Amino acid sequence: MRFILLTVAMIAAGTVLHQFLPWWAIWCAGLLIGLLLKEENAMMTFFIGFLGAAILWGSYAFWLNSGNDGIMASRIGALFGGLGAMTLIALTALFGGLFGGLGTLCAYYGRSLFHRSL
């Protein structure tokens, strides 16, 4: 239950921050959520950020793709060697997940570094 709540919080923080910041807002959202986490496991911290950001970026890419009937994704896919629209959406979700996961992981290691120095 806590995992789901934190993933939804990651999605909400990413959505709000994307209104004010460019693409790296998902990293800032991951950093904020990572500071709130009290996980003792770095892998779980990364996975919470990864899943929240991947869902956010993947669903937003899917929504944009369905809004223009896939025309833009097919043209961009042609530039990248004939990738399909769903492949581009999956890659967008993957990169968004990596950015969000790295944000939460930076907060995890930063907090552990700070607590060790005290």
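^ that was protein a. below is b, sequence first then the tokens
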Amino acid sequence: MIPAELTTPTLTVALLADTDSRWKWGARLAARLGSEVELIGYQLWTHDLPSHRQLLEAGVGPERVRQLGPSGFLEALATDHPDVLIVAAPGGGCQAILQLLATARLEPRPLVLTGYVGVVYENLVDGLLLRAGADLIGANSPADLEQFARVLTSVGAGADALVRTQLPFLEDPAPRTPSARFTVTFAGQPGVPASRAERQYLVQRLADHARRHPERDVLVKLRNLPGEVATHPEPYPYDELIRGLGSQRPANLKVIGGLMSRALSRTDLLVTVSSTAAVEAVHAEVPAAVLTDFGIREALGNTYFLGSGLLASFEELDGGLVPRVDPQWARQRGMRGLSDELPARVAKALAEPRGELRPFYSLANASGFLPRLLAGYGIGPDGRPLPSRANSVLRKAVRSGARGVYRHGTTVIGPALRRLAAL
């Protein structure tokens, strides 16, 4: 029998998330907080649940996930008594939760931790001030920590809540499984680029690259399976566009799914428009190329890679270029050689008394937009759940039905019509 003083206490972590990528981020973050972590899942009520496959891939047991409205969420916290609450939501969702908890004043209340699911390349001030007021805000790199501190200090919010961490998907790379053939993997994204013409351009360039280099395998890594809920909808899936090549499709151009870490284990060159897969590749010491064919623009997200040495065009890749990352750039963005300070900061914060949550925004400084933002989450301007209305169930059913119709249209009907049009 192990003496009680030698056992490691189990840390109960509640994760509130909405979409697949945020479930994955939050679950992996939770796993790093202690050697014994019990994870409880709360689905943000404004979104549908991801599929069982998506939850399992994220490391979450679907049976532990509950979809709750504001009142049910507070009741769950009061019943479950989690030590830590990870809020894996966009800025508006974080603000809604902070206002809700600040008003409810649970005793005891969980330590509230939030952060950014991916790299931060736009809307930095917007997102950060909506998160300000949480007990801890993760900054994924030294560069982020410096920027966040500057913003918070400039508005008088204070930077004490900031803690340097690293993106949770930057885990130990999977063992390499090299093949005899050089492998180029294209990491697709649901929303970038957005237009059909641009996505067809990418497919054509990938096909051309495969023809120019018959000694290479060119793999297109899909983001999600057809019909699954994703953070960003994908109106023109790459597998459909590749099928549209018909007899013009090179034999060495293939489509794959599964975990990015698994794909990287067999990859010699990762190609993307701006996916965080490039960050994973740098961390795993796999060469990566961030495409400039559509320009270097904030809307694409590839401005994040300025100074990295990874920006390249298809023309250069066709000519044999294999970019190499600038080591200093990689270190500044937390991809290599940095320790994670978050677990120790969480342990320290849990051992100290916690005061009331004080979100940066209030009716005193943001009365023009805060009530409208909160109302979208079923919360009143006073931070309390809005009273149930007779038509709330109907509104939820209509919203859910509309999402289902949209997904069915984009993943089933749309591709079918495009195939017919190609006949």
